[in-house]
Design brief:
- This protein is mainly alpha-helical.
- The chain is built from 9 helices and 2 strands.
- The chain has helices at 16-28, 45-54, 64-72, 78-92, 97-114, 116-125, 137-140, 147-160, 169-172, and strands spanning 38-41, 59-62.
- A two-stranded parallel ribbon has the order 1-2.
- Helix 2 links the parallel strand 1 and strand 2.
Amino acid sequence: GHRQFLGVYTKASESEASWSEVFTHLVKRGLDPASVKYIVSDKHIGMRKAIAKYFPKALWQRCQTHTQRNSESKIKGRDQKEKLHQHLRDVFNSPNEKTAYGRADKLIEHYGKTHPKLSDWLEESLPEALTVFELPKKHRKRLRTNNLIERFNGEIKRRTKVIRIFPNRDSLL
C-alpha cells in the first residue's frame, strides 16, 4: 500500500534501450520481475516494449492524466475541451469496471457523431486507462496516474533550471 522511488536515472531518451537499462539495473539490485503486478505510466512506446520484456505478467495502466491531456489535443474550443474533461472524469470516477466501460462506450458513441477521430482515439485509448479497475477499490485513486513522479520531475526541473549545466552525472544527482 506504499509507493516509493526505486531509483533515479539519467537517460537521453525514453527508448526501449534506455528503459531496458533501468529495468535491468532494478532486477540486478533484487527486484523480482514476478513480484511486479502493476505499472502505471504514460504511453511511451519504448517503455511499453521494455515493460512487456521485463515484466510480462504485470498489468499496465495508462496514466489517466496523460490520457485526458492527449484527448484534449484532439478537439478544439475551450468549452468543448471542458465538456470532454468532465465526460472523462465521469468515466474515470466510475464506482466499478462495468460502469466505467458502460460510460466509456456512451462517450465514444457521443463523440462518434461530431468528432469521429476523437471517438476512434477514445475507443483505442480508454481501455488502457481503465486497467486500474482490476485493483481493489482502496488503491485505485492513488494508482491511476503517475502524477507523483511527474511532480517529482517538475521539482527537479525547477531546482536545476538555475544551474543549467552539470559537469558530470554525480553533480546532477
